[in-house]
Amino acid sequence: MENVTIFDHPLIQHKISLLRDKKTGTSEFRSLIEEIAMLMGYEALRDLPLEDVEVETPIETCMTPMIAGKKLAVVPILRAGLGMVNGILALVPSAKVGHIGLYRDEATHEPHEYYCKLPSPIEQRTIVVTDPMLATGGSAVAAVNFIKEHGGRNIKFMSIIAAPEGLQRLHEAHPDIQIYVGHLDRCLNQDAYICPGLGDAGDRIFGTK
Ligand code: PRP
Ligand code: URA
Fold first, then answer.
1. For a disulfide at 101, which of 29, 78, 157, 179, Cβ 3.0-4.6 Å?
2. Residue range 40-67, pLDDT digits in tens
3. Ligand 1: distance of its center to the CA of 74 in Å?
4. Ligand 2 atom with minimal separation from the 201 CA
């Protein structure tokens, strides 16, 4: 699929396996989510714009490339997407952070919006939307719709685990955005949870249930 990257790096696969384990506790789970986000971000941000700046080395003055960092916005989908933000900020500390609050109705599995705040202006920025789980794709499609309605154009969506159904839905709704997936799982169950998945990502990050 064009514009879709599914990672096969052994470090990412190893850490995802640790995430899946129901014996993995909150503190380790949080650290793993952040580390995986950073490893995925390293690849997803390889086309970040550079600008030449003047630097004085001990030998001479030169023009040398640096990330035009103010061009990046990270937009987590609340709550679980928050867990990935620090992994991206470790790579680009000057990035701005927006928030999109969505929760899935337990019966219909449809997303409901409860909070949205994006950095302004959004048009010129590379926008990295984070959410560890891409299940039915409803939340991801709604988040990207919202960002586009506000003028966002250069959008990357990062999820750690995706179901085939959700990946296809997001790609069909927004074929122009870059989608990065840590692992493509088998399917959704009758409750729209990813199988084998890792359970409820938000609850495991924040220790709720
Ligand atoms: C989870 C997850 C995604 C969404 C994925 O969030 O973090 O946002 O479900 O499902 P979908 O692809 O079927 O829309 P949830 O609604 O449980 O909220 P939470 O992060 O606040 O727990
Ligand atoms: N949200 C989660 O947190 N886990 C799933 O498997 C599906 C949606």
1. 78
2. 999 999 999 899 999 999 999 999 999 8
3. 17
4. 3
